[in-house]
Specification:
The protein is built from 4 helices and no strands. The chain is mostly helical. The longest helix is centred in the last third of the chain and has 13 residues.
Length: 68
């Protein structure tokens, strides 16, 4: 048997949880939005916010939690 050649995407779980609670959607919806499988205004906002927070420091995550 050969090894699988498909690469799995990984996302920062802290950011995914914060976004799901602040936008009141499931974590699955957040991951699908980041991948680009969902197309709605909310999905676009989630993708934009994830990319802003993707180089996270704990201060940025806490700042975003307090802002919402």
């Amino acid at each position: 048997m050969d090894k699988s050649t498909q690469k799995r995407l990984t996302y920062n779980t802290q950011i995914v949880k914060v976004l799901s609670s602040s936008f009141e959607v499931s974590e699955y919806f957040v991951r699908e939005s980041i991948k680009g499988n969902k197309s709605s205004f909310t999905a676009d906002e989630i993708k934009k916010k994830y990319n802003e927070l993707n180089n996270p420091t704990l201060e940025k995550i806490e700042e975003y939690k307090k802002g919402k």
